[in-house]
């Protein structure tokens, strides 16, 4: 597969920067490879976690997700399975199966790959662009933030069994 917009076949280099990093849900996420660069085949996002942080239980209808743990420890719930994952572990969450992730160590870093792409666009649309003077909000997400999460998620065919009525 050749990447789009790249005249040197499959050569690519990325650095985490303000241009590709967003405050997403309660953590930071950097889009390493976008679906636009892979003709929609996949996208890769580096997610930074903090203890107790993670998305609510959700279901992706359009993409499978894989998680490679670079740092820290996390608990995954995928369907009826509970998985304790640590640095070097890989977890796969197929589309259509409810899943959630919680960071149990102080911090974590996880590479999230979605097949096909889509999660990267979701992060970009829902997230707040990072700048060096960004101030991270305190406390849990506001009702307005949860409402926006649900509205934007519908566009990407992501649902939240415990949040939606």
TrEMBL record:
Pfam families: Cupin_2. It comes from the Bacteria. This is Cupin type-2 domain-containing protein. PANTHER family: PUTATIVE (AFU_ORTHOLOGUE AFUA_8G07350)-RELATED. Residues 52-108 form the Cupin type-2 domain. InterPro entries: Cupin_2 (IPR013096), QDO-like (IPR053146), RmlC-like_jellyroll (IPR014710), RmlC_Cupin_sf (IPR011051). Gene3D superfamilies: Jelly Rolls (2.60.120.10). It comes from Gottfriedia solisilvae.
